[in-house]
Amino acid sequence: MTDEEKNIFGNQLRERRNELNLTTQKVALDAEVGESTYKRLEAGDGNPRLDTLVRIAKCLKTDLNSVVPQEHLCKDSGIWQIVRKLLSMDKKKMNKAIKAILAMLDAMSDD
Predict the structure, then answer these.
(1) Among residues 5, 19, 4, 20, which one has the least CA distance to residue 68?
(2) Residues 44, 26: contact at Cβ < 8 Å?
(3) What is the model's pTM?
(4) What are 34-58's pLDDT values in tens digits?
(5) Which residue intervals define the domain HTH cro/C1-type in the entry (predicted)?
(6) Domains in the chain: how many in total?
(7) Domain range spanning residue 18?
(8) Which residues contact 82 (CB under 8 A, 6 or more apart)?
(9) CATH of the domain at 21
């Protein structure tokens, strides 16, 4: 993402958090990220992993596309289908699926 896109993303996170009357501490805790990391994202700094974005979106009771336009996530609709499926899972299943996907990708990159 460009700096401008990161700033837009950060503003969208902040606006949604404020709509829900949540603190940065609460979102960070629920999304399992450090509060300083979350604050940097709201400030338009950082490059979060997809699993982090998914957890933040869930904490903000929204879908990933609401905070990050699809075209910035991927150009391939197959990847977006995976993201939507992950978002439909409960937290435990989602984390398990993300770990499995990352392990599979790591194994494939060793080839």
Answers:
(1) 5
(2) no
(3) 0.63
(4) 999 999 999 999 888 888 988 999 9
(5) 13-67
(6) 1
(7) 3-109
(8) 101
(9) 1.10.260.40
